[in-house]
Specification:
Elements lengths: L2 H17 L3 H9 L2 E2 L4 E2 L15 H13 L10 H13 L1 H8 L2 H26 L4 H18 L6 H4 L4
Antiparallel strand pairs: 1-2
Helix pairs in contact: 3-4, 4-5
GO biological process, one term: protein import into mitochondrial intermembrane space
Protein name: Mitochondrial intermembrane space import and assembly protein 40
Main location: mitochondrion
Length: 165
Amino acid sequence: MTSTQQTNVETAKISQETLSPSKNENENEQSDAFNPETGEINWDCPCLGGMAKGSCGEQFKAAFSCFIYSKAEPKGVDCLEQFQKMKDCFREHPDEYGDELDDDDDDTEEEANLLQKTQKIQMCQKLRLLQLPRPLILLIILIQVINKSMKNPKNLKIENIIISA
């Protein structure tokens, strides 16, 4: 074989390798939990750590699906209920999900604050959709905060009333 023919063969091999994905690339595509092209979730993905198959698999699937398909900003803010159900299920099965719950104790207060802020954001978004004047929106929010505080006076704090512009 001449050196020109050998060069042509090597070039053809390189072109073929460039056009067809390697085994590793195919494995990476299959190992992703979500395929945006098909919109499908691969519940067998090793990256999910088998969470879809345990005692709380259905709750995990509901929370994960909600997050993946969420259009809310910030992403997943509309999935808090599903994640709470999943977390409750984890607590019901500590032998199976103990590792998932180890860090939970520190996060409870932080999660409560996040939930409260999220509810405020959702309320503001709903009121903006109604295109109400800003003073009226602030009045409605203030009334809601006061009503919630009347149920639990310990929650009546100035930071619960102040809403940034």
